[in-house]
Write a structure and sequence with these properties.
Strand content: 15-25%
Helix content: 10-25%
Oligomer: single chain
Distance between the termini: 44 Å
Structural class: alpha/beta
Pfam families: ABC_tran (PF00005)
Family: Belongs to the ABC transporter superfamily.
Largest sheet: 6 strands, mixed
CATH superfamily: P-loop containing nucleotide triphosphate hydrolases
Number of strands: 11
Keywords: ATP-binding, Nucleotide-binding, Transport
CATH class: Alpha Beta
Domain ABC transporter: 5-235
InterPro entries: AAA+_ATPase (IPR003593), ABC_transporter-like_ATP-bd (IPR003439), ABC_transporter-like_CS (IPR017871), Metal_Ion_Import_ABC (IPR050153), P-loop_NTPase (IPR027417)
Bound molecules: adenosine-5'-triphosphate
């Protein structure tokens, strides 16, 4: 069976120095994988290579056995929250409909497009918000609208860049419940700076730091993370309590402070 994503000896450089070096990676169909790594490690570059937005300096990327360009209609992509203009004056339905735009057919929607958009909105539980201005929604609701936009084209592979940035722990839990449901019919790849939600829904972790290593989540422990990131590592637990003495720390699983650019709200 063709894997969802395959990188065969892929290297990539923006300048003289390689950002990714001879990466061979297979993401099987049905996987729920999380891409992690330090700042500048090459996560975004990896995603751009998978999306076909960058071409490898050497090696080959295939999605479902095809080039990324040929497989584009099988991919749903949710960009980083910070890359979306939240003040843009559009309705929720308009945002979701953008997921139906194709290279040939731009800004013209059919009845089928609207049905698909409404169906995607119902999947993320936001049917009642379709006419609301996108800017009027909460952070968690906007994330779900962006997921609906990615789902609108009925993808086989859902790629998400930092889907839990700017959402509180309750919205994050709801989001992962939704992703877990979607994972029964599509492969999911999530980029994250935050290992705190490596839980039962995530099946494998792809560690990117110029080289790429894949681990089943069951193997993920403090020693392994230390090997990948180096240094003095700590992790703030998501079920922590705050007091005047600070946060409770889970000593068994520790991460670098550079790994926590989006600290969780208590
Ligand atoms: N357009 C570009 N031109 C030159 N260098 C780039 C470009 N984009 C990224 N880089 C460099 O490539 C390296 C990897 O960047 P990339 O954005 O892939 O890392 P990342 O793991 O996503 O980082 P972060 O966690 O900070 O978002 C970094 O050293 C970065 O400075």
């Amino acid at each position: 069976m063709e894997p969802a994503i395959a990188l065969d000896n892929v290297s990539f450089s923006y300048t003289r120095h390689p950002v990714l070096d001879e990466v061979t990676l297979t993401v099987p169909k049905g996987d729920f994988a999380m891409v992690v790594g330090p700042n500048g490690g090459g996560k975004t570059t990896l995603i751009k290579l998978i999306l076909g937005l960058l071409a490898p300096t050497s090696g080959r990327v295939t999605l479902f056995g095809k080039t990324p360009e040929s497989a584009w209609n099988q991919i749903g992509y949710m960009p980083q929250y910070t890359h979306v203009d939240m003040a843009f004056p559009v309705s929720v339905l308009d945002v979701v409909l953008m997921g139906r735009l194709t290279r040939k057919r731009r800004w013209r929607y059919t009845k089928n497009d609207r049905e698909a958009a409404r169906h995607a909105l119902s999947e993320v539980g936001l049917t009642d918000k379709e006419q609301k201005p996108f800017s009027s929604l909460s952070g968690g609701q906007r994330q779900r609208v962006l997921i609906a936009r990615a789902l609108c084209s009925n993808p086989s592979l859902l790629l998400m860049d930092e889907p839990t940035a700017n959402v509180d722990p309750a919205a994050e839990a709801t989001l992962f419940e939704l992703l877990s449901t979607l994972n029964s019919r599509m492969t999911i790849l999530v980029v994250s700076h935050d290992l705190g939600f490596v839980s039962k829904v995530v099946k494998s972790v792809i560690c990117v730091n110029k080289k790429v290593l894949v681990h089943p989540t069951s193997n993920l422990d403090g020693t392994l993370i230390n090997e990948i990131y180096g240094g003095d590592l700590r992790m703030v637990r998501h079920d922590h309590r705050c007091s005047h003495e600070g946060h409770c720390i889970n000593e068994s699983l520790t991460l670098p402070t550079s790994f926590m650019p989006h600290p969780k709200k208590p």
